[in-house]
Amino acid sequence: MLAQGAFATAHAADAADAAATQLDEVVVTATRVARTGFTAPTPTTQVGSEDLQKAAVTNVADQLNKVPAFRGSSTPASTSHITQNAGGNFLDLRGLGATRTLVLVDGHRYVPTTASGLVDINVIPTGLIDRVDVVTGGASAAWGSDAVAGVVNLILKRNLTGLQGEISTGATERGDGQEYRVSLAGGTGFADGRGHFEAAAEYASSAGVGSNRDWFKEHWANIANPAYVKGNGQPQNLILPNVGVSVATLGGLITSGPLKGLQFLPGGATSQFQYGTNVGAQYMTGGQGIYPGDLISLVTPLERASLFTRATFDFDDKTQGFFEASTAYSRTDFNLSASYDLGSITIRKDNAFLPASVQSLMTANNINSFQMGRINPDIAYNVVDDVNQTTRLATGLKGAIGDWTWDASAEFGETRYSARVYNNRINTNFNQAVDAVIGPNGQAMCRSTLTNPTNGCVPINLFGAGSPSAAADAYVVGTQSLLSHIKELSAAANIQGKPFSTWAGPVSIAAGIEGRRESVNQIVDPGSQAGIFAIGNPKAMRGSYDVKEAYGEAVVPLAAGLPLVKNLDLDVAARVTNYSTSGTVWTWKAGLSYAINDEWRVRATRSRDIRAPNLNDLYSPYTLTFATVTDPRNGTQLTVSQPQLGNPNLQPEKGDTITAGVVYEPAWLSGLHMSLDYYDIKLQGAIATLTAQNMINRCESGNTAMCQYIIRDSSGMLTTVLRTNINLSELHTSGVDGEISYNTPLDRYFENLPGSIDLRLLTSYVDKFITNDGTTSINTGGVTGVGGPHWRAMASASYTNGPLSVYTEVRYIGPGLYDVNLSYNNNHVDSQTLVNTSVQYTLLDHDNRQLQVFGAINNLLDSNPPVAPYNFIFGSPSSASVFDVMGRRYTVGVRFKY
User: Fold this and answer.
1) pLDDT in tens, 191-233
2) Which residues pair with 851 in a beta bridge?
3) Percent helix, strand and coil across the chain, each rounded to 5?
4) Cβ contacts of residue 363 below 8 Å, gap of 6+?
5) How many contiguous H segments (helices) and E segments (strands) does the chain have?
6) Closest alpha carbon to 556 in 601, 499, 495, 599
7) In angstroms, rounded to a whole number, what is the distance separating the alpha carbons of residues 343 and 657?
8) N or C: which end of the chain has fewer CB within 10 A?
């Protein structure tokens, strides 16, 4: 079942009633109270195992990200430009950031896989998932910190018997993106049925996707408009096709002085570089400029494996114990990019490798040096190798005392995460190697070796593609490494019961205490610590914090069985949390569920939610990276350094959430369900690291607090933007979710027509997404790569007739804007419509044995993404987490059970 909004929660309760004889307890994730028949006032989406099977996905994140409430989630398609956590799947509700979406497994926190407190969905075995509850509203009072945007609770299958599994493979129509998945799960009883053991194992791999897509080869990008001058009416930026670099080539390009435009060809020959039009500080359209995006991937490869075991034992008819042990592994290994210099290499006249013809030109023009730009795949690609190993142990008891139920549990988990970047350029070595001269022996040598003969410097020839020697390549690059050890230790105890009744029904309560300690110990190689590399340079980090919590929740029936009041329930909850780093904070919620009659239901919730600063927010060390920005003062596009570090003085974010909705389930058409839910989330003191461009823009717009982080040289040129974690003033988003669902047997309408259909439409509209730092308020609602397009929708239809099941879904990602901070010649981003379809056929279903074959086609129409937002200038497309970039792809497989 896949549903959204009020209908989902209503029918989650109905499903709970039906399953009450099979499950020990029923908890809808929107509330801690286990109360069959209760419809919680917070909208909840459910994705069931049948949905995952119909869509034939290899990762549960692939299906969840289709739900319109998820926006901007990190996926292997959006992490092809980063050195850490590349290939990760991190869920992001409402586009508020993955750190504001709390991920649970069976109602418990899962060990973080990053120092930011995130859980990589890659570590969860898809084949073991029974359903996923997605609470699309504030839930901190019930579940704790990080649930500002909502909660994703992955519910695992229980009481498995026998063996079941799935084998599948697939690839894109263009022959890349090959995927393989093998999943096995099973269980058996022991101790005369008092105990039960189950285990699940899964392996999956995806080969990734390169840049060989026709739409991508149009080379669309955002470049600074060279004609822009403040106040002249010209747009600041141009979004144009056929964009290339104007200050670098694969073999070297002279970018300054009288020889500007002379380029070096293989073997050291020279020719005149052909410039295009709209030539800016670094980029242009047309001409001979290379497009850096051609050198990197659209989707990173991913390999993952997991093993999960669980044992339960009934000590008596009211007390059960459990023990769980699991381990997971994921890895991505890919070419990140080539090193590059955009007109920043200084070449002297006496360079040992400089062609004699160029030396003669320098003499004739009376120059002793020039600046050169070069893109260097012939030296080496930066190769990212990220490995995540997560281990988790959990144990606990649950039972009943009279009409009360209770549970207590403890969990220990650790993640060992390593991130390596091979062939990372060593800046000092490179600069020394470039400055080559003819030595006393008549051979090329580094100028530095003349004064330090034992420095080991190997001179490098940069004149023409393929000119650098293997020895020089080895000298100028090295391996950057990071090893992060993240631990979580937690314990919790909960109790639920119905201590008394009002005239309208029994009052249900839940209460509990929790404690948690999280820590990180991160070590790096000496070179990274010293900052010798061209990219990355992570630093050592160490820190921890403790959390102590207590909560209570009550569901109070206020009225029932009255005219126009079938029932009216009040749901209230409060939680007090003490952080060792920032003190005590309260969260709470109050909600009403009002059933007018059997057809109409109204619901509303008001909550206070928090997100406390995580380990990375607090303790992240100084890290130096670079960014391409546009100077609002003159429209110049340039590269600046952007060192980043944590802030131990951060305070928790505080969110105020309002949800209100209506559900209509008409008696005149059984199986039809309609809902509409409004949400409004206002986050005060939002913890964020703004982009360098945003910080520059806000400073220039009058926010003087931002100007302290902006550094210019004596001529006024931007050089550095200091990026630190800060508590911003406010994030504010609002919108509406809608859903229409209808399922019925076809013989209801046509007597002899077999089978049944299930139709569903889910929509989400983003009204606003405002960032307010106290001075500048920017609304990015409708901006494709930030707040998200205004409209997103998913429609599905399935037909089932005996052993045959046919499923089709249509996704719509609406049009949007490219940016709202700068003016553009074309600020429009087109929509994308995707059609996915699958067929399942059960060959055998007898005596608890089942054999099923299936096939699926994703992006059936081979829809291309809008080209405008794909700004591959030494980075990733700005909207890769929004659109499908892979094209048509096929999956086939088999499922079995016995």
Assistant:
1) 999 999 999 999 999 998 887 888 877 887 778 888 888 888 8
2) 844, 896
3) 10, 50, 40
4) 349
5) 12, 50
6) 499
7) 50
8) C
